[in-house]
Amino acid sequence: MPTISRAEVAHLAKLARLAVTDQELDKFAGQLDVILEAVAKVTEVAAEDVPPTSHAVPLTNVFREDVVRPGLTQQQALAGAPAAEDGRFRVPRILGEEQ
What we know:
By secondary structure, this protein is mainly alpha-helical. The protein has helices at about 5-15, 20-45, 75-80, and strands at about 85, 90. The chain has a two-stranded antiparallel ribbon. α1 (about 5-15) packs across α2 (about 20-45). The longest helix has 24 residues, at about 20-45. It is elongated. About 5% of the residues are buried.
């Protein structure tokens, strides 16, 4: 027997502005009861002496030094381009004029 009543489900549906049938009220009451039971089990497991964690195993980030390195010049970048115009890559138009 669900611990959440049909009246409570109907009230929740009204708050959410959902139209539900009598069959759906029974179905949702059972589903919400299962959800509430699962939440209750989780709260039972959580103990005061267990610190909250975001992962099951400890993780550490590995960072490397941020080293400034020289990049390509504009001419070097455009040297391998199939087409360039006004110092930029030239690409074919993909949208028509109606866009």
